[in-house]
Structure formats: structure tokens, C-alpha cells
Amino acid sequence: MPRTAMNVIDPAVRRCIDECVRCHEVCLSTLPYCLEQGGRHAEEAHVTLLLDCANICQTAADFMLRGSDEHGRVCAACAALCQRCAEDCDQFAGDEVMHACAESCRHCADSCGEMATAHA
Amino acid sequence: MPRTAMNVIDPAVRRCIDECVRCHEVCLSTLPYCLEQGGRHAEEAHVTLLLDCANICQTAADFMLRGSDEHGRVCAACAALCQRCAEDCDQFAGDEVMHACAESCRHCADSCGEMATAHA
Amino acid sequence: MPRTAMNVIDPAVRRCIDECVRCHEVCLSTLPYCLEQGGRHAEEAHVTLLLDCANICQTAADFMLRGSDEHGRVCAACAALCQRCAEDCDQFAGDEVMHACAESCRHCADSCGEMATAHA
Amino acid sequence: MPRTAMNVIDPAVRRCIDECVRCHEVCLSTLPYCLEQGGRHAEEAHVTLLLDCANICQTAADFMLRGSDEHGRVCAACAALCQRCAEDCDQFAGDEVMHACAESCRHCADSCGEMATAHA
């Protein structure tokens, strides 16, 4: 494996970056699905939460990629937002796309929660 | 004044958006100045803090612009980052550009701190 | 006026940054309005265009704030996106909020178009 | 494999998103390395180009994740920026970290170039 700047990032931080990037991707790509479905899927509160979650996940990932020593603070906010977004996605019982989005949010919430505790 | 979506935003929130946008602009435009100066101005910790501050300010502004009810959490993180960035800029005594950056950070820290308290 | 890093930015670039920031703010704050209205306002193509426009406006502003000599390229993309978003907003005849959004997009398209031509 | 919103994205677009995300990660994590190294690594033009490249890669990825039909335009700008960043990183002969960054930029430039041609 070639030596890149990313290879020197602490493995636990690296995993958290991966979860944040994944959750950002899933939330943002779930947005057009929700808008197409309409109804409860396209309600303002739900769409806003998907965008909030995608936004803070990217911000948390960028803090970690820059090697910022302030990432714990942003990861704490990210964990809380991801948790709320997961719960909001859980209300769409039987919808596989929303279920997958909730799962991504929960994984990211767990990972960011650990990061926030370790770097409080 | 024409009616725009921004006109219906609560005035206190509007002021906080303005401070966040201003602080984002000042931090980001201070970056090339620091890199040109070199030395302590271009040290990794300082440059990272300028980028962190610009990043979280934009994120906080975007939460408020979207009308998110989760902006308090992000404003709390933003207030803390702005405070740290202001202190870091204060170390460049006699440097007018860094002083102006510190002032923008302090105004944004105050405004975001109030927002975080009001929407905790 | 205190000397800040922003004061040394070329006045034409400064005006373009202001238009981009304004257009980003208006598009992003028009989003919750559209989602509340529902119907044609909340259609996927329209919401996506508002988010696209807000996104590229912020990106163009950030290139100019960093003093990048590659901003012409991004301003060209921004001008085209703003023009499309303006036309999409124009379809909501008699809707003052959408009209104001279209106006912001047109101002930004003009300003970014000039910047793209000057720095091609 | 669970059905997620990302699974329905066209495979060619999906690969381009992956390249953009990877290039964003590598450029942003190369930044602290460059600032630590100092000298030519930390020169304003080089640091600005790394940030420009990271920024436009994220923007291009987000356009594709949202399913925007305007992503071709942004991918064209991204391909050009990535190409310029790769050439700038190539000047650091014998530096494995910079070489890896150049490679990521070239892969992303190729992928975005194809996307821009296909969706012009």
C-alpha cells in the first residue's frame, strides 16, 4: 500500500471518518428518494433533518481529515444529530431505503459518540 | 423591501447568521495572508484553527438558514471554536489583520453562545 | 474601517463574493418555504436545483475568499447554475418569495458571468 | 446487500463519487503534512490548490449524490482543478505522500472528465 497522508491517521479516527463519509453519502442520496415519495417522506422536518445530518457528518469528517484537535466537539454534535435522524427514519416501518439510512446514522452516531468521549 | 424567505427569519437568528457568515469570510480570507507571512502565522495549528473556525461558522449558518431546530447544538460548538480561534489570533500583537480576525471570531462566539443558550 | 484580510480583496471580486453569499442564503432559506408549500414547490427537480445553486454559490465564494486563481472556472459553473435556478423560480408567477429568489439568482449569475469572462 | 438509496445510483456515477470522495480525503489530509514540512510544501499557491481541489471534489460528489442533472458542469470544473493539483503535487519528486496525492487527483480528473463528457 502506498504511503499517503491518510495512512498516518489513527485507525480509530480513520474508522470514524469512514462512518461520517458513509452517513453523509446515504443521507444525501436518500433526499431525492424522499422527495419522489412525497407525503410524510417529503415533510419539511424530515428533509431538514436529512440535510442537517449530511452537513454535520461532512463537517466532522473534515475536522478529522485536517487533523484538528477540536474534532471531539464536532463529533459530539454529530453523534446527537445522527441519533435524531436515525429515530426520524425509523418511523417509516417497512421502508427498506429509510431503514438503511437509519442504520448508517446509528453506526455514525456510535462512532462519533466514542470519538467525542475520547477527545472531550 | 421585497418579501424574501430570509425576511421571515427571527431577527436574533438573522443577526447570528450574519456574524457566522462574516466570521467565515474573515477567517478564510485571512488564510492566504497567514501563508504569505510564513513563520508563526503559517504554523499548522494556527492554519488548522482558521479552517476549523471557517468551517463550523458556515455549518452553523447553514443550519439556521435551513430553519433547522437543531441549530443550538451546532452554535454551541461554533461558539467554542470561535473563542479558541480568537485567542489564537490574539497572540499576534500589533498585527492589524490578525486583530480584525480575532474581533470577528469574538463577535461570532458571543452571538452563537447566546443562540446555544436560547435553544439548548 | 479596520484593515482586514477582506479589505485587500479586489472590489469586483468582493462584489461577486457578496452576490454568491447572498444567493446561497436566499436559496437555502427558500428551501423550507418550498417544502411547506408542497406541490410543485416541493418537486424533486426544483428542490435539487435550489440545493445545487446554494452549493455552487458557496463553493465559488470560498474560492474567491481563499484568493484562488482558479475561481474563474468555478464562477462559470456558478453562473450557469444560477441562471437555471432563476428560470425555475420564475415559473411560480405571483409568488413573491420565489420571485425574490429568482432575482438573487440572476444578480449572482450576472456577477459570476463577468468574473468568469475576466478570469477565463 | 441491503437496498439503500445509493444502490440505485448508476455504477459509472457511483465510481465517480468514490473518486471524488477519495480525492477530497487525500487532499485534505495532505494539508497538515504540507504545513508541517514547511518550505515549498507550505507555499500559499500549493496550499490553496489543495484546498481548492478538496472543495470542488466535495461539491462534485454532492451534486451526484443528490442526483442533480447539472453534475456534468461541476465535474468539468473538478476535472480541470484535479489536473492542476496533480501537476502541482508532481513537482515534489521523491516525496511519497505528495506522489500519492497526485495519483488520487489524476484518478479523479479522469473519472470527472468522463462524467463531464457524458453529461455535457
For the report, how would you describe the main beta sheet of chain A? none
Oligomer: homotetramer
Order of helices and strands of chain A: HHHH
Q: What's the average pLDDT of chain A?
A: 95
Summarize the structure.
The first copy, chain A, is mostly helical and 120 residues long.
Layout of helices and strands:
The structure is a homotetramer of 120-residue chains.
Chain A: H1 11-37, H2 44-65, H3 71-90, H4 96-118
Helix pairs in contact in A: 1-2, 1-4, 2-3, 3-4
Describe this structure in words.
4 copies of one chain form a homotetramer. In chain A, α2 packs antiparallel against α3 and α3 (71-90) packs antiparallel against α4 (96-118). Chain A is elongated and about 45 Å long. With 120 residues, the first copy, chain A, is mostly helical. Chain A is built from 4 helices and no strands. Chains in contact: A-B, A-C, A-D, B-C, B-D, C-D.
Labels describing this entry:
homotetramer, 120 residues, mainly alpha, 4 helices, elongated
